[in-house]
Amino acid sequence: MKYAKQLKYSILLFMLLYLNSCRTELILLTVPTVVVTVSMPAEIKENIQFANKTVTLRSQRLTYTAQTNEDGVAMFKDVIPDIYNIYTSWDLTADEFVVMADSLVENKPALISGVQSQMKIFEEDSIEISTLLSVKQNLLISKVYAAATLDNNNSLYDADQYIEIFNNSDEVQYLDKIYLALVEGDSPIGFPSSLFPTTLHARQVYRFPGNGNKYPVLPGKSVVICNSARNHTISAATSIDLQDADFEFKGDKYPNNQNADSMILIYTSYLAIKEINLQRNGVNSVCLFKTNDDLSTYNLDYVPGKTSGNRFMRFNAIDVFDGVEILRYRSTGSIDPNTKRLQKFIDAAFTNISNTGGRNHESNERKVDTQRSAGTGRIYLKDTNNSEEDFVTVTDPTPKKYDKPLLLQ
Question: Which of 212, 225, 298, 362 could join 353 in a cystine, given CB atoms 3.0 to 4.6 angstroms apart?
Answer without folding.
Answer: 362
